[in-house]
Amino acid sequence: MARVCVDACFLIGLYDKDDQHHDTSVRHFEALFGEESARHQLVAPWPILYECLGTRYAKDPRKSILFTQHWDYLNEFGQLVLLDDRPFRGLQLFEHLEGRNRALSLVDRVLRAMILGRERFFDFFLTYNTPDFVDACQIGDIPLINQESAGESYGI
């Protein structure tokens, strides 16, 4: 069983039927975490939950129901891992406020720090925002799953 860290764009696509990545997110979810899959673990860092479960999401009960169903299912089969961001957020906030490095959101900075850290918290990273993560994934030796990966074996 592999640990697949997901970016907010995957979750937003999964729960928003109007999102451009909805169909791809549904295929990824079924292939990686669904009943017919190898039941890999979905690793969700706290920052992506804040990003995904914002005000617009909270005001749409349909998204909330589907989210709850998926997360209850993942929890039931031991497939859900919530990843604490505390070891990463302080330095990343400082660098963000100082304007260091690239123009990235604080969420993306924290995710990149997790990918580049010494400890390996996950085996794969799923995002549709490839340009902001491809270099970190290559350096951190974390295979990247993106919208072009749909339907493939993912190398898992």
Give a short overview.
With 156 residues, the chain is an alpha/beta fold.
Descriptive overview:
Helix 1 crosses helix 2 (22-33), helix 1 (8-15) packs parallel to helix 3 (46-52) and helix 7 runs parallel beside helix 8. This protein has helices at 8-15, 22-33, 46-52, 55-58, 61-76, 86-98, 106-116, 134-140; strands spanning 3-6, 41-45, 80-83, 124-126, 144-145. Strands 3-2-1-4-5 form a 5-stranded parallel β-sheet. The mean pLDDT is 89. By secondary structure, the protein is of the alpha/beta class. It has a single domain, classed as 3-Layer(aba) Sandwich (Rossmann fold). It is 50% helix and 12% strand. The protein is globular, with a radius of gyration of 15 Å.
Major sheet characteristics = 5 strands, parallel
Spell out the helices and strands N to C. EHHEHHHEHHEHE
What is the percent of helical residues?
40-55%
Strand order of the largest sheet: 3-2-1-4-5
Average the pLDDT over all residues and give the rounded result: 89
| Strand residues, percent | 5-15%
Number of contiguous helices? 8
Q: Which word captures the global form?
A: globular
Full CATH superfamily name: 5'-nuclease
Rg measurement, Å: 15 Å
- Measured between the Cα atoms of the first and last residue, the distance is 8 Å
Whole-number count of domains = 1
CATH architecture: 3-Layer(aba) Sandwich
Q: How is the CATH topology named?
A: Rossmann fold
